[in-house]
Amino acid sequence: MSTKNVDVVLVGGGIMSATLGIMLKQLQPDWSILAFERLSDVALESSNPWNNAGTGHAALAELNYMPEAPDGSLETSRAVNINEQFQVSRQFWSSLVSRGVLPEPGSFINPTPHMTFVRGEANVDYLRRRWELLKDEPLFAGIEFSDDPSVIYRWAPLLIRDREKNERIAATRVVGGTDVDFGSLTHQLFDHLVRNGAELKLETEVQKLKKQKDGSWDVSVRELVGTTPYTVNAKFVFVGAGGHALPLLQKSGIPEIKGFGGFPISGMFFRTDNQAVVSQHDAKVYGKAAVGAPPMSVPHLDTRVVDGQSSLLFGPYAGFSPKFLKTGSWLDLPASVRPHNLWPMLAVARDNIDLMKYLIGELLASKKKRLAALREFMPTADEKDWYLITAGQRVQVMKKDAKRGGVLQFGTEVITAADGSISGLLGASPGASTAVPIMIDLLKRCFPTRYPEWEKALSTMIPSFGTTLNSDRKRTKRELEATAEALQLTR
């Protein structure tokens, strides 16, 4: 056994580790960084564009960020907050482009309108009321609403062609939406890190995390193509291993992970690369989730640009697998059960019968039923143009709750040790789109003595750092235009 000493260990080769690594390299270039990824390349799990259930989340079209309350009221704060976070990410990427860290913006981000499409009188009424509230928010300036099929046809003809003429429909559109290829972005960030002194070890699995008396961590790893395990000692460890973050944090023994569990949800998409179909649709179109469906299962007909090639995805069709990663183990879920999280997990099962029924229904759904769901969005969909692909695993957070015993949380959760020496990320959506503000919050929590020194540098990279854009209409317009120009998003 040999031991190597480094300042920072990043566990996992996804967008979260890449974002934190590039931030630390900009803020503290003298620190040594070592990243471990168990697969043969980075961005092969949740950050891969074909595994990622949604890209460019900015709450422009996703209805789950602005749900209707039991009394019928609507509230904009969460949608505005998600948009604020995405703008922080955009500003950071813009800065990296200007610094030459990211070479060609079009390789990872492209302009794509974001739309919402609903059917039925009640949903049309809801969407109209949502639009009436959002159109006065600076970050949502320019959002359009229509219940006129001829207008919606101009926006997205595949939604209207061959649809019943008497069906009540409505849509909103924001032209300034984006499509983000987080796989490409992750590769480019890691390429820069490696060129500037960081180390990346592929096909290397972190097996154990053990805290030392001096507050550092011994990280035990095994090369999957080798035979001799070894140990790395790190002053700080970030566990950005997707679904595998939960078991690794459990192995670390930090008390902050107690009471947390994970509920894995798998899924599939219909995909078409037929350019005769793809060329007729240029938008991310979100619908409304079915009753009992998790927010991450909101149906959407989605333009994707990967390696310069446009495709369409529709889904997701949710399912269940006990694996915490697409390439994980069938024992991941049962192996994660501990005495401290058993009751929260049972409480979640008790309170989410509708979700269980929904998942069972999805598992039993035939291809004909799945195609019918696509045709609710796109009536002219031809079975021969579409094929099913398997999406990445999403592990939703289950945690203790004083009133109910446990709750299922659809979002992200950062788990940080009291001394800030180790931190990890659990959960899913909005995930990658808000990676930058998530990592800024992590820096503040884990490096409280260093953080004040870094604030000036962060403010040069992120003009809205420490403030909110939505409170100033002129500033919002200026910053949105600036990032759109830097990222070459103007059409």
**Uncertain residue segments:** none
CATH superfamily: FAD/NAD(P)-binding domain
Overall helicity:
25-40%
Number of domains: 1
By CATH reckoning, the class would read Alpha Beta
* Spatial gap, N to C terminus: 56 Å
Structural class: alpha+beta
What does this protein structure show overall?
The structure is a single chain. With 491 residues, this protein is of the alpha+beta class. Helix content is 32%, strand content 25%. The radius of gyration is 22 Å and the shape is globular. It starts with a strand and ends in a 5-residue tail after the last helix. The model has no long low-confidence stretch (mean pLDDT 92).
Question: Which key terms come to mind for this protein?
Answer:
about 500 residues; alpha+beta; FAD/NAD(P)-binding domain; 10-stranded mixed beta sheet; 8-stranded mixed beta sheet; 14 helices; 20 strands; about 30% helix; MQO; FAD/NAD-bd_sf; FAD; Probable malate:quinone oxidoreductase
Give a brief description.
This protein is of the alpha+beta class. It has helices at residues 15-27, 77-98, 121-134, 149-155, 182-195, 245-252, 275-278, 332-335, 339-351, 353-364, 367-377, 435-446, 451-461, 473-486; strands spanning 3-11, 33-36, 109-111, 114-119, 144-146, 169-174, 178-180, 199-201, 204-211, 217-223, 230-239, 261-272, 284-286, 300-306, 309-319, 387-390, 394-401, 405-409, 412-416, 422-427.
